[in-house]
Predict the structure.
Amino acid sequence: MDQLKDIVRNHRRISKLNRIELATLAGVGKTAIFDIEHGKESVRFDTLKKVLHALNIQISFDSPVLERQSRATRSSGS
């Protein structure tokens, strides 16, 4: 599985954006883009969301607990 830093870097390059252009589009500082692309773990989540939104990347969460709960609710409602 690709790491987030690689996904952001690849999307930025495919979009033909340099780090400063992406930072401007996302409304964040240029160092935020550098930090994300280098895997820095202390990047603020709201900053990351802005960058992902600018690149049209969606975040998806999987939760086995919620999936089980959803299945149980569906089966009990039938």
In short: The chain has a mean pLDDT of 93. The chain has one domain: 4-76. Residues 4-76 form a domain with the 434 Repressor (Amino-terminal Domain) fold (CATH 1.10.260.40). The helical segments are 4-14, 19-26, 30-37, 45-54, 64-76.
